[in-house]
Structure formats: structure tokens, C-alpha cells
Amino acid sequence: MLELPDAGSITDVADWVELTVTTSGDRLSKAGIASKIESRSGEEPAEAFIAAVWRELEYRQKLYMRPCFQVMDRTVEPVSGLEPRVEYLACLLLSLFGAPNEVHFATKLFERLTSEAVQAYLSGKSFTFGFPSPTTALREDGGESVIKGRTRQLAIDLHEEFIKAPPAKSKDRGVDVVGWIPFSEGRSGQLVILVQCAAGGDWKKKLPVPIAAWVQYIHWAFDPIMAYAVPCVVGDRDWHEVSRDKGLLFDRIRIANLLLDGVKNDALHTELSLWVSKQLQEIAE
Q1: Is 145 exposed, middle or buried (0-12, 13-18, 19+ CB in 10 A)?
Q2: Helix crossing, 266-283 with 103-122: angle to 10°?
Q3: CB 122: neighbour CB atoms within 10 A?
Q4: What domains appear along the chain, each with residue ranges and CATH number?
């Protein structure tokens, strides 16, 4: 059985139940979940805590368009014949365990996954804009900084007017994914979303995309909107405030629903499959 990182967190326990049920193909009972929590924490969980986990799972089940689990009175069971997609499992793993051994690789995978979800949502275009690597040279061929070259190309691709680049030390200036809906005639002035991705457990601490800064770098005919992507489920209690603070939200529910048939990029699908398989092997007890 998979390890449980935090036995005192309702959301972590709910994530653990989702992951365990969907990957093992076995049901989990309330008694079994309580036993796992007790073995992890050393204390028997209160009935109210288990009830809260159940409510969280029921909440999620209603939101997923194709849930891989079903919540019964005293058990959580896998949906027969429904294989969980690697896109969904990747989000679950990042939400529950993060990526301590390969943070950068996992982060880039999530950005690429988010880009596909954004493109599906918009029925438009998207690409990953985020700085490629902390060790990438600050200058490209021709002497232009990486961020300047990327910002200039972004303006060209969107038919907007480039003004100047963010400071090189700012790297991607909070933008990991760009999505937009172009008009057929190719003029400026279109719906553009600038997405910040937060794959780690500290997602609440990350700052949203600084739109006020980005209007200094590109002379948008119509200002973009900020968006925020996380592999976890943003609960009903936090949803409104997080949306107001971070922008248009893409959490695990929305990403999974937008990618019901998986990502279109075959290379990304292969990389996700290999990463998910490796992570599941490493965390198995």
C-alpha cells in the first residue's frame, strides 16, 4: 500500500485514498483508512475527521466528469473498467508527494500538461513560456537575453507590439504558460491568458502573474488576464478567494476534465507515463 505523507491533513488523506484506490484497483473501507492514519500518526483518528475526508471525496466525485472512484457509505471503490489516465495520476502524485528528487523535470512536465489543458479550454493556442532551466545561460545566440528573445517572440506570435523585456534576473516573470484565441485575420486584440504554474506543496505562497508588469513589456491591444494552475484540488472553502487572488484557476479537477482523452502530444504522454510509473514504484511500501 502507498505511503501516506500527512495523516493530519484532510486533503492529503483524500488524495491518498484517490491514488490508492485508482492505482491498486481495490476498495478502501473507513476502518482501513482509519487504521492507516493511526499507523502513520500513532493516534486513532476522530470520527469527525473521517467524516470530513468522506465529504471531501464526495465533493470531488461530483466535480470530476469521469471519476475513477466512487464513494459508498463505508467504502471508496474503483470504477470498474475505467483505467485512470496518466495525466490525472501525475497531478495526484504532484499534489500528494511533490517531486523532491527531480523538481525541475516534474515542474516542466506539469507546465506542459497545463499548456495542453489551457489549449483544450480555449480551443485556441498555447505554449510553455516558462524559463527553461535555472542553469540555462542568460544569453542566446546573437547576444539577446533569453527572456528578451522569448518576450519578443511572444509579441510576434500574438501580433502584439513588443516594448521591452523583463529584467534578465526575473527569468520568466511569473509566466509559465501562455494561451490565446486568435482571430482568423491575425490582428492584435484577442483573449490572452498568462498562467503561473505551481506544482509544489507551497502553491498558496506563490505570487500570481504580475499583469501590471506585463503591460510594460508588451503593448497589448487588449490586456491579458492572469491564471493559475495547480495539481491539487482547490476546495470550495478556498475557491472564491484563490480565484480573486490568483486569477482563472486550473486545478486537478479542471485539468482532468479538460483532458478526458489525454494529451495530444505523444512525446509528453510517454514522458508522463514513465514518470508516473517511476514515482509509483518509489513510493510503494
Answers
A1: middle
A2: 130
A3: 17
A4: 10-84 (1.10.10), 107-262 (3.40.1350)
Tens digit of pLDDT at every position of the chain (285 positions): 788 999 999 999 999 999 999 999 999 999 999 999 999 999 999 999 999 999 999 999 999 999 999 999 999 999 999 999 999 999 999 999 886 555 688 999 999 999 999 999 999 999 999 766 433 434 444 445 788 888 999 999 999 999 998 887 777 889 999 999 999 999 999 999 999 999 877 787 788 899 999 999 999 999 999 999 999 999 999 999 999 999 999 999 999 999 999 999 999 999 999 999 999 998 885
Cα 265 to Cα 204: distance, rounded to the nearest angstrom: 29
Alpha-carbon distance of 3 to 213, in angstroms, equals 42
Distance CA 53, CA 55 (A): 5
Cell of 101: 528528487
How big, in percent rounded to 5, are the helix, strand and coil portions of the chain? Answer: 50, 15, 40
- The grid coordinates of residue 93 equal 502524485
Distance spanning both ends of the chain, measured CA to CA: 6
- Residue 68: CB atoms within 10 A of its CB come to 21
CB atoms within 10 A of CB 146: 19
Q: pTM, whole model, 2 decimals?
A: 0.92
Rounded Cα gap, residues 177 and 131, in angstroms: 10
| Contact status, residue 87 vs residue 151, Cβ threshold 8 Å | no
The DSSP line for 210-261 is: -HHHHHHHEE-SS--EEEEE-SSPPPHHHHHHHHHHH-EEE-HHHHHHHTTT
**Residue appearing with cell numbers 497545463:** 114
For every residue of 134-174, DSSP letters joined together read TTS-SB-TTS-BHHHHHHHHHHHHTT-EE--PPPGGGTTTT
